[in-house]
Protein backbone atom coordinates (compact mmCIF):
# COMPACT_ATOMS: atom_id res chain seq x y z
CA UNK A 1 0.00 0.00 0.00
CA UNK A 2 1.11 3.59 -0.74
CA UNK A 3 2.17 5.47 2.34
CA UNK A 4 0.43 8.83 2.87
CA UNK A 5 2.55 11.93 3.23
CA UNK A 6 2.32 13.97 6.34
CA UNK A 7 0.14 17.02 6.22
CA UNK A 8 3.04 19.52 6.42
CA UNK A 9 5.02 17.84 3.62
CA UNK A 10 1.92 17.62 1.44
CA UNK A 11 1.39 21.38 1.82
CA UNK A 12 4.99 22.11 0.81
CA UNK A 13 4.71 19.85 -2.27
CA UNK A 14 1.57 21.63 -3.42
CA UNK A 15 3.27 25.01 -3.07
CA UNK A 16 6.26 23.82 -5.12
CA UNK A 17 3.94 22.43 -7.80
CA UNK A 18 2.17 25.80 -8.15
CA UNK A 19 5.48 27.61 -8.56
CA UNK A 20 6.78 25.19 -11.23
CA UNK A 21 3.47 25.07 -13.16
CA UNK A 22 2.01 28.58 -13.61
CA UNK A 23 -1.72 28.95 -13.81
CA UNK A 24 -2.98 28.79 -17.42
CA UNK A 25 -5.73 31.32 -16.74
CA UNK A 26 -3.25 34.05 -15.85
CA UNK A 27 -1.73 35.77 -18.95
CA UNK A 28 2.09 35.86 -19.24
CA UNK A 29 4.06 38.97 -18.37
CA UNK A 30 4.83 39.80 -22.04
CA UNK A 31 1.22 39.51 -23.23
CA UNK A 32 0.91 43.28 -23.55
CA UNK A 33 4.03 43.48 -25.78
CA UNK A 34 2.69 40.71 -28.03
CA UNK A 35 -0.60 42.58 -28.46
CA UNK A 36 1.18 45.84 -29.25
CA UNK A 37 3.51 44.25 -31.84
CA UNK A 38 0.81 42.18 -33.55
CA UNK A 39 0.33 42.88 -37.26
CA UNK A 40 -2.45 41.55 -39.49
CA UNK A 41 -1.54 38.82 -41.95
CA UNK A 42 -2.12 39.93 -45.60
CA UNK A 43 -3.09 36.37 -46.51
CA UNK A 44 -5.79 35.87 -43.87
CA UNK A 45 -6.78 39.56 -43.63
CA UNK A 46 -7.15 40.77 -47.21
CA UNK A 47 -9.13 43.86 -46.21
CA UNK A 48 -6.41 45.18 -43.91
CA UNK A 49 -4.22 48.16 -44.99
CA UNK A 50 -1.16 45.90 -45.41
CA UNK A 51 -2.67 44.25 -48.49
CA UNK A 52 0.02 44.51 -51.27
CA UNK A 53 -2.57 45.47 -53.89
CA UNK A 54 -3.66 48.53 -51.87
CA UNK A 55 -0.08 49.76 -51.63
CA UNK A 56 0.77 49.00 -55.28
CA UNK A 57 0.71 51.90 -57.76
CA UNK A 58 2.06 51.19 -61.28
CA UNK A 59 2.76 54.88 -61.90
CA UNK A 60 5.32 54.84 -59.09
CA UNK A 61 7.35 52.08 -60.81
CA UNK A 62 10.43 52.74 -62.92
CA UNK A 63 9.73 52.69 -66.66
CA UNK A 64 12.24 52.74 -69.56
CA UNK A 65 13.04 55.97 -71.39
CA UNK A 66 10.58 57.15 -74.07
CA UNK A 67 7.67 55.56 -72.18
CA UNK A 68 4.89 57.70 -70.69
CA UNK A 69 1.58 57.14 -68.88
CA UNK A 70 -1.88 57.84 -70.31
CA UNK A 71 -5.21 57.74 -68.47
CA UNK A 72 -8.13 57.23 -70.88
CA UNK A 73 -11.13 59.47 -70.31
CA UNK A 74 -13.72 56.80 -71.01
CA UNK A 75 -12.33 54.41 -68.34
CA UNK A 76 -9.99 55.99 -65.74
CA UNK A 77 -9.51 52.63 -64.01
CA UNK A 78 -7.40 51.40 -66.95
CA UNK A 79 -3.79 52.62 -66.93
CA UNK A 80 -1.93 52.75 -70.26
CA UNK A 81 1.83 53.13 -70.68
CA UNK A 82 3.04 53.78 -74.25
CA UNK A 83 6.41 53.93 -76.00
CA UNK A 84 7.14 56.97 -78.15
CA UNK A 85 8.58 55.53 -81.41
CA UNK A 86 7.47 56.72 -84.84
CA UNK A 87 9.72 54.39 -86.86
CA UNK A 88 8.21 51.09 -85.75
CA UNK A 89 4.87 49.89 -84.52
CA UNK A 90 3.86 51.42 -81.20
CA UNK A 91 4.35 49.34 -78.07
CA UNK A 92 2.01 49.89 -75.15
CA UNK A 93 0.91 48.29 -71.89
CA UNK A 94 -2.52 48.22 -70.29
CA UNK A 95 -2.92 47.49 -66.59
CA UNK A 96 -6.32 46.44 -65.28
CA UNK A 97 -7.69 43.72 -62.99
CA UNK A 98 -4.20 42.85 -61.64
CA UNK A 99 -3.06 41.96 -65.17
CA UNK A 100 -0.55 43.58 -67.55
CA UNK A 101 -1.65 43.39 -71.21
CA UNK A 102 0.96 43.69 -74.01
CA UNK A 103 -0.17 45.65 -77.07
CA UNK A 104 1.12 46.50 -80.54
CA UNK A 105 -0.66 49.35 -82.30
CA UNK A 106 -3.23 49.30 -79.48
CA UNK A 107 -4.04 45.62 -80.14
CA UNK A 108 -3.61 43.16 -77.27
CA UNK A 109 -1.53 40.07 -78.13
CA UNK A 110 -0.37 38.84 -74.70
CA UNK A 111 -0.89 39.23 -70.97
CA UNK A 112 0.88 38.62 -67.64
CA UNK A 113 -0.90 38.19 -64.30
CA UNK A 114 0.92 39.76 -61.34
CA UNK A 115 1.23 37.56 -58.25
CA UNK A 116 1.00 39.26 -54.85
CA UNK A 117 2.25 36.05 -53.16
CA UNK A 118 5.46 35.82 -55.20
CA UNK A 119 8.37 34.66 -53.05
CA UNK A 120 11.20 36.63 -54.72
CA UNK A 121 9.56 39.70 -56.30
CA UNK A 122 7.15 42.35 -55.15
CA UNK A 123 4.34 43.62 -57.36
CA UNK A 124 6.43 46.65 -58.35
CA UNK A 125 9.42 44.47 -59.27
CA UNK A 126 7.21 42.19 -61.37
CA UNK A 127 5.72 45.13 -63.24
CA UNK A 128 9.16 46.68 -63.88
CA UNK A 129 10.48 43.36 -65.18
CA UNK A 130 7.55 42.93 -67.59
CA UNK A 131 7.84 46.43 -69.07
CA UNK A 132 11.66 46.19 -69.27
CA UNK A 133 11.55 42.87 -71.15
CA UNK A 134 8.87 44.23 -73.49
CA UNK A 135 10.94 47.35 -74.18
CA UNK A 136 14.07 45.30 -75.02
CA UNK A 137 12.18 42.82 -77.23
CA UNK A 138 12.34 43.13 -81.02
CA UNK A 139 9.20 43.40 -83.14
CA UNK A 140 8.97 40.54 -85.62
CA UNK A 141 8.52 41.90 -89.18
CA UNK A 142 7.65 38.50 -90.64
CA UNK A 143 8.93 37.35 -94.04
CA UNK A 144 8.97 40.45 -96.24
CA UNK A 145 10.88 39.23 -99.35
CA UNK A 146 9.05 40.07 -102.56
CA UNK A 147 10.00 36.79 -104.23
CA UNK A 148 7.75 34.88 -101.81
CA UNK A 149 4.64 36.95 -102.48
CA UNK A 150 3.68 34.93 -105.53
CA UNK A 151 3.37 31.75 -103.49
CA UNK A 152 -0.30 31.01 -102.90
CA UNK A 153 -0.13 28.56 -100.00
CA UNK A 154 2.27 27.54 -97.24
CA UNK A 155 1.34 25.20 -94.41
CA UNK A 156 1.36 26.85 -90.98
CA UNK A 157 1.55 30.40 -92.36
CA UNK A 158 -0.64 33.15 -93.79
CA UNK A 159 -0.05 36.07 -96.15
CA UNK A 160 -1.27 39.44 -94.89
CA UNK A 161 -0.44 42.80 -96.44
CA UNK A 162 2.24 41.16 -98.63
CA UNK A 163 4.01 39.73 -95.57
CA UNK A 164 4.21 36.03 -94.74
CA UNK A 165 3.87 35.25 -91.04
CA UNK A 166 3.70 32.05 -89.01
CA UNK A 167 0.43 31.21 -87.29
CA UNK A 168 2.50 30.79 -84.10
CA UNK A 169 4.27 34.14 -84.43
CA UNK A 170 4.60 35.88 -81.04
CA UNK A 171 5.02 39.32 -82.74
CA UNK A 172 8.02 40.06 -80.46
CA UNK A 173 11.24 38.13 -79.85
CA UNK A 174 14.48 38.45 -77.94
CA UNK A 175 17.83 38.83 -79.69
CA UNK A 176 19.27 41.27 -82.20
CA UNK A 177 21.11 38.79 -84.46
CA UNK A 178 17.93 37.31 -85.91
CA UNK A 179 15.91 39.01 -88.63
CA UNK A 180 12.61 37.59 -87.36
CA UNK A 181 11.27 35.25 -84.69
CA UNK A 182 12.07 31.53 -84.75
CA UNK A 183 8.61 30.54 -86.01
CA UNK A 184 8.69 32.98 -88.93
CA UNK A 185 12.25 31.93 -89.78
CA UNK A 186 11.00 28.33 -90.11
CA UNK A 187 8.30 29.59 -92.47
CA UNK A 188 10.94 31.46 -94.48
CA UNK A 189 12.89 28.23 -95.03
CA UNK A 190 9.69 26.47 -96.06
CA UNK A 191 8.92 29.24 -98.55
CA UNK A 192 12.42 28.90 -99.97
CA UNK A 193 11.88 25.19 -100.55
CA UNK A 194 8.53 25.89 -102.23
CA UNK A 195 10.17 28.50 -104.44
CA UNK A 196 12.94 26.15 -105.58
CA UNK A 197 10.42 23.39 -106.18
CA UNK A 198 8.23 25.65 -108.30
CA UNK A 199 11.26 26.75 -110.36
CA UNK A 200 12.26 23.15 -111.04
CA UNK A 201 8.79 22.32 -112.36
CA UNK A 202 8.49 25.44 -114.54
CA UNK A 203 8.75 25.19 -118.28
CA UNK A 204 11.42 27.01 -120.27
CA UNK A 205 8.93 29.64 -121.42
CA UNK A 206 7.82 30.34 -117.85
CA UNK A 207 11.43 30.62 -116.71
CA UNK A 208 12.19 33.04 -119.53
CA UNK A 209 9.15 35.12 -118.69
CA UNK A 210 10.16 35.19 -115.03
CA UNK A 211 13.65 36.39 -115.96
CA UNK A 212 12.15 39.17 -118.08
CA UNK A 213 9.89 40.28 -115.24
CA UNK A 214 12.78 40.25 -112.78
CA UNK A 215 14.91 42.28 -115.21
CA UNK A 216 12.17 44.88 -115.70
CA UNK A 217 11.67 45.19 -111.95
CA UNK A 218 15.41 45.62 -111.36
CA UNK A 219 15.68 48.29 -114.09
CA UNK A 220 12.69 50.11 -112.67
CA UNK A 221 14.29 50.22 -109.23
CA UNK A 222 17.61 51.36 -110.68
CA UNK A 223 15.95 54.17 -112.66
CA UNK A 224 14.09 55.35 -109.58
CA UNK A 225 17.29 55.32 -107.55
CA UNK A 226 19.18 57.37 -110.18
CA UNK A 227 16.31 59.86 -110.41
CA UNK A 228 16.30 60.40 -106.65
CA UNK A 229 20.08 60.85 -106.50
CA UNK A 230 19.97 63.49 -109.29
CA UNK A 231 17.14 65.27 -107.56
CA UNK A 232 19.05 65.51 -104.29
CA UNK A 233 22.17 66.60 -106.15
CA UNK A 234 20.31 69.50 -107.79
CA UNK A 235 18.93 70.58 -104.43
CA UNK A 236 22.37 70.53 -102.84
CA UNK A 237 23.75 72.72 -105.69
CA UNK A 238 20.94 75.22 -105.29
CA UNK A 239 21.52 75.64 -101.58
CA UNK A 240 25.32 75.78 -101.81
CA UNK A 241 26.63 79.27 -100.80
CA UNK A 242 28.16 81.35 -103.58
CA UNK A 243 31.90 81.94 -103.68
CA UNK A 244 32.32 85.72 -103.26
CA UNK A 245 36.02 85.64 -104.21
CA UNK A 246 35.35 84.13 -107.61
CA UNK A 247 32.54 86.60 -108.28
CA UNK A 248 34.87 89.52 -107.45
CA UNK A 249 37.55 88.23 -109.84
CA UNK A 250 35.06 87.80 -112.64
CA UNK A 251 34.14 91.45 -112.36
Characterization of this structure:
By secondary structure, the chain is α+β, with helices and mostly antiparallel strands. Among the domains are: 52-136, no CATH class; 146-201, no CATH class. It has seven helices and nine strands. The protein has helices at 7-20, 31-36, 52-55, 123-136, 182-201, 204-238, 244-250; strands spanning 67-70, 79-83, 91-96, 99-104, 107-113, 138-139, 157-160, 163-166, 172-173. The protein has a five-stranded antiparallel sheet, covered by helices on one side. The protein has a two-stranded antiparallel sheet with strand order 6-9. The chain has a two-stranded antiparallel sheet with strand order 7-8.
Amino acid sequence: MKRKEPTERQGVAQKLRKVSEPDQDVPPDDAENVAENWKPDPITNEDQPCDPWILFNPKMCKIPPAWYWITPKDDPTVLICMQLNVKTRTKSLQFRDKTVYLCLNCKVFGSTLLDSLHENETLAQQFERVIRDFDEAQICPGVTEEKFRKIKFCAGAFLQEEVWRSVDCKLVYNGTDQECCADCYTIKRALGRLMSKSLSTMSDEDKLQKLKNDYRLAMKRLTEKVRRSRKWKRRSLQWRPKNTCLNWKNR
